[in-house]
Write a structure and sequence with these properties.
Elements lengths: L1 E7 L4 E7 L5 E5 L6 H10 L3 E6 L11 H8 L2 E5 L9 E3 L4 E4 L2 E7 L8 E5 L2 E5 L2 E2 L2 E2 L9 H10 L9 E4 L9 E2 H7 L8 H8 L10 H8 L6 H6 L3 E2 L1 H7 L5 E5 L3 H7 L6 E2 L5 H5 L4 H7 L4 E5 L4 H12 L6 E3 L2 H7 L8
Parallel strand pairs: 3-4, 4-5, 5-6, 10-13, 15-19, 16-17, 16-18, 18-19
Antiparallel strand pairs: 1-2, 2-3, 7-8, 8-9, 9-10, 11-12, 13-14
Helix pairs in contact: 3-5, 8-13
Bound molecules: fe (ii) ion.
């Protein structure tokens, strides 16, 4: 495994880069906007391909690197399903898996610091965001924070992990880099409480000043979405209703870019083809399945994903590859479902 812990000194943020092998797919957790050049350099130096950028929650103390990484690498942006960020490519829920080549992270919903806080468990380590810090816990006094929810997340989820599990938080202000569940059980002063009420009392009386960046970071981090209007402005988008109207035409091929797990969970459009987003470049290039479909078979390719992010990137790439007839469905399967489009099980 390739594992790097990177630090942004301005915000005290830890960012994690993971991959299963040199030359393989990589994912990054909690990237900071100002450090994006550094991440991309390291990704090149380690010969990795960034495919997913994940935020554990909507940050209040720095601007996320998710949008910039998406724009520069065409990676998939990921957050939990409770996020208020406008559009991320993929939303995960408790019990889902966050997958890249050779790695699967378990998704734990751990609200409390915010109502969109998630932790990610991989083998011997857990990325706890700001839910559980080293000898501390994330504040619960803004962004729909809730000390009781946090108590539940920590005591009933994170502390139930094996004691040797390594704890990698999103922040540290003292210079600590890693801990374990066992160590936090014994030495974390915030966890020396006897009840949920006592924890809530403690957290409600911290009287911390708001983070310096909060007024800038929170609104900025809610708008990470790709500008789907630009794609629509070029005439490359269909609304869900338009797509429903043309879906059965013989010259239309709806191409689903989502992962298998997303298709199983949210359903598929009957008769659609499956071409997962990471294989897109191959498929639209000369000799690729979608290239053939568009040229030899004369089909109009209509891309679909979860919320229209991946499909908007795909339609741009397909246009660049010369597939001028290609379109995408604005708002993805989410919009399709809301417009009562037909769904089937994969
Ligand atoms: Fe936070």
């Amino acid at each position: 495994m390739i594992f790097r812990q990177l630090f942004d000194a301005t915000s005290g943020t830890y960012t994690y880069l993971l991959a299963s092998r040199p030359g393989g797919e990589a994912l990054i957790i909690d990237p900071v906007l100002e450090k994006v050049d550094r991440y991309l350099q390291l990704i090149r130096e380690l010969d990795l391909k960034l495919v997913k950028a994940v935020d554990t929650h909507l940050h209040a103390d720095h601007i996320t690197g998710l949008g910039a990484l998406r724009d520069r690498t065409h990676c998939i942006t990921v957050m939990g399903e409770h996020t208020k960020a406008d559009v991320v490519s993929m939303r995960l829920a408790e019990g889902d898996r966050l997958e890249i080549e050779g790695m699967r992270l378990d998704v734990l919903y751990t609200p409390g610091h915010t109502d969109d806080s998630y932790s990610y468990l991989f083998a011997d380590r857990v990325f706890t965001g700001d839910t559980l810090l080293i000898r501390g816990t994330g504040r619960t006094d803004f962004q729909n924070g809730d000390p009781r929810a946090q108590y539940d997340s920590i005591f009933n989820k994170l502390l139930k992990l094996p004691e040797t599990t390594l704890v990698y938080p999103a922040h540290d202000y003292k210079g600590d880099t890693v801990s374990t569940i066992g160590e936090e059980k014994l030495f974390n002063p915030r966890l020396k409480v006897k009840s949920m009420d006592e924890y809530a009392e403690l957290m409600n009386n911290l009287k911390l000043p708001n983070p310096k960046m909060m007024d800038v970071a929170v609104p900025a981090n809610m708008r990470v979405g790709l500008h789907q209007e630009e794609v629509a402005g070029k005439g490359w988008a269909l609304t869900a209703a338009e797509a429903i109207a043309v879906r059965s035409r013989p010259d239309v091929a709806i191409v689903d870019l989502r992962e298998k797990s997303e298709r199983e969970k949210h359903g598929i459009i009957p008769g659609s083809l499956h071409a997962p987003y990471p294989s897109l470049q191959e498929e639209i290039g000369l000799g690729g399945m979608l290239h053939e479909l568009a040229t030899a078979a004369g089909k109009r390719i209509v891309f679909l994903c979860a919320f229209g992010e991946r499909s908007a990137m795909a339609v741009r790439a397909a246009q660049d590859a010369g597939l001028k007839n290609s379109r995408h469905i604005s708002g993805g399967i989410d919009a399709w479902t809301k417009a009562n489009g037909p769904l089937a099980r994969p």
